Amino acid sequence: MIINRRDAIVIFIGVMIMAFGALVGGWISVIIDPLYFFEHPPAWWSQAKNIFIVIGGSIGAVGYWIPYKMFLEKWVNR
Fold first, then answer.
1. Looking at residue 39, what DSSP letter applies?
2. Which residue stretches of the chain are H helix?
3. How is the chain split into domains, by residue range?
4. Rounded Cα distance, 54 and 63, in Å
5. Phi and psi of 44, rounded to 5°?
6. Which end of the chain is more exposed for a tag (fewer CB within 10 A), N or C?
7. E-strand stretches of the chain
8. Which of 28, 18, 24 is nearest to 58 (CA)?
């Protein structure tokens, strides 16, 4: 399969935006500390940290999809 330069640029932009969203989600899971409210971390907190990463990546995917549909799709298909 041969990928042209425009396709590669668009794929790279998408991966970077989604990775940035996951990074922000991970950062939020570090900033929010349940120890301020509880004496020890609740049992659900270990899974909630991963949820923030998934939600951040999903928001990054939506943040990529909007400009892709508005601009990048037309640019690639020229």
1. S
2. 5-31, 45-67, 73-76
3. 5-76
4. 14
5. -75, -15
6. N
7. none
8. 18
> What's phi and psi for 60, nearest 5 deg?
-65, -40
Q: For the chain of 78 residues, list the mean pLDDT of each consecutive stretch of 10.
A: 80 88 83 71 73 84 85 79
pLDDT confidence of residue 74 = 81
Report how far residue 58's alpha carbon sits from residue 63's, in angstroms, rounded to the nearest whole number. 8
Report the pLDDT value the prediction gives residue 41, as an integer from 0 to 100: 72
Joined together, the tokens standing for residue 72 give 């990048």
Compute CA 78 distance to the chain's CA centroid, rounded to the nearest angstrom: 28
**Whether the Cβ atoms of residue 21 and residue 59 lie closer than 8 Å to each other:** yes
The answer to whether residues 52 and 28 touch, using CB atoms and an 8 Å cutoff, is: yes
